Amino acid sequence: MAQKAKVLVVANRTAGSEELLGALRERAEESPAEFHLVVPASPRGASWMFDMNSGHDAAEHDLEGALQRIRDLGLDVDGEVGDPDPVAAVSDSSHAGGYDEVIVSTLPKHLSKWLKLDVAHKIAHTTGLPVKHVEAHSRAESAA
Question: Which domain holds residue 92?
Fold first, then answer.
């Protein structure tokens, strides 16, 4: 039996989006894969200036919901809340894991801080792995 590819998935507010779920389903259809979802504990809104840990609860909530939705597709997935910096979160996780590829999910260009920071490119450079970028709509839009 072929060994499963190890795919690191990085997402925050888009972790449970239809676009990301579709990309994971497509990836699993290409060849056997197991997924590890990292949700960076990025602070949201203005509160981050006062509390750098403010993003952890939201990230934990996003992680739990996304893991359930991915498992509902029949995919092999586990996950963790990562460093608030998405590149650092990937670096922490990739050193621990030995992944074959990375999927980065972001909000659309006009909303995404990660795209402005060129996170997907930085992750590719840091890890040396192939990186696929999935642009998702906000959670509220994808749930409608």
Answer: 5-143
